[in-house]
Amino acid sequence: MTATAPITQDVLTLPRKLPKDSKINIIGLTRDQLYSALIAAGTPEKQTKMRLGQIWKWIYHWGLRDFAGMTNLAKDYRAFLDEHFTIELPKIVTRQISTDGTRKYLVQVKGGHEVETVYIPEENRGTLCISSQVGCTLTCSFCHTGTQKLVRNLTAGEIVGQVMLARDDLGEWPVPSAPKDETRLVSNLVLMGMGEPLYNFENVRDAMQVVMDNEGLTLSRRRITLSTSGVVPEITRAIEEIGCLLAVSLHATTNEVRDKLVPINKRWNIEALLNTLRGYPRLSNSERITFEYVMLKGINDSDADARRLVKLISGIPAKINLSPFNEWPGAPYERSDWKRIEAFSNIVYKAGYASPIRTPRGEDIMAACGQLKSTTQRVWKSSREIATEAGL
Ligand code: SAH
Ligand code: SF4
């Protein structure tokens, strides 16, 4: 009798070694995308849900960066993952720490491009300000990023990666045997770094889905604020598909001034913007829109502006964040005087809106809002281009 062929128990067919570049980076894939990728690579369908849960927890809960350490997976399966996938983050190139504790990271993404990520510590919490694009296509005339041409959109992985890198730097991954610590260092996330998040919609949406997942990074949607300059057609979509809180960069109370400060206003003006917000019924007082308003001396900071502002936003559950202008080399504006900012804030407050004045953080390291720009990527717009787009 001839010997019967040995029965292969392993249903996986281990493939030949793939070159690193053709491996799929797990970081930034949503659960659904990772599920499909695991199956496409050869994971048996009936195991996939469980494997996905295990891998997800290792990466996003424990912060693990290699498959070999995933000890609840069979050795063969770990080797299989290593053949097909990578766990790749962008790199922190430099880190600066301000006298007020703010940390600014210069982060390198694929292609050698750089973006900035800022961590702002507060009492018992902390906010991470992340970037969504390298540069920006828009040219707000008071914003440093606006002077740098758009190089490219960040991938979902590069957006999620910024959160993970900050947690690495702050030492915020859980330690298995240590008692659970409920205080979170990165407790809040704002998409207020470089770029216009709604011009990179799909990647931002997928990245937010990953960071909101409650078995991983677990940042709840109410702790995430997406700031937009006013990409009107994408606003409703953002509320519906991302569901995080929204900040809108208003900055002016007449179209004439807003055209100059936020040139996207020439496409979707103040009325179009506010009508969209007003038309969205799910907004409630607990999920107010934040209006961002930068205080520029003699440009948009008069009492009349404050009164026009409250009239314009009436009917929208809102809070107004007043930001003293953060200066940068060559900026064409000055910061309003403190007394002026307070007078403006009082008028808005008396009309029934919270109107906090934002304390600029990390100014000594140029980490404040609107000061970000990667200096090694010298693809800047000419001052003529900026002036033309802003209609100056
Ligand atoms: N592109 C998005 C998000 C990034 S900018 C947006 O424009 O909303 C984040 C916030 O910083 C925006 O409200 C922006 O208007 C504001 N900002 C830009 N430059 C600034 C500066 N120099 N001083 C103060 N705030 C600034
Ligand atoms: Fe771009 Fe926002 Fe800066 Fe305007 S304020 S140039 S939209 S990053």
Q: What does this entry look like structurally?
A:
With about 400 residues, the chain is of the alpha/beta class. It folds into two domains: about 25-90, Orthogonal Bundle (DNA polymerase, domain 1); about 90-385, Aldolase class I (TIM Barrel, Alpha-Beta Barrel). Helices cover about 30% and strands about 15% of the residues. It is built from eleven helices and 13 strands. The chain has helices at about 30-40, 45-60, 75-85, 155-170, 200-210, 230-240, 255-260, 270-280, 305-310, 340-350, 385-390; strands at about 25, 85, 90-95, 105-110, 115-120, 125-130, 135, 150-155, 190, 225-230, 245-250, 290-295, 320-325. A nine-stranded mixed β-sheet has the order 3-4-5-6-9-10-11-12-13, covered by helices on one side. The longest helix has 17 residues, at about 45-60. The model is unreliable at about 1-15 and about 375-380 (pLDDT under 50). Bound molecules: S-adenosyl-L-homocysteine (SAH) and iron/sulfur cluster. S-adenosyl-L-homocysteine (SAH) binds near residues 192, 228, 249 and 369.
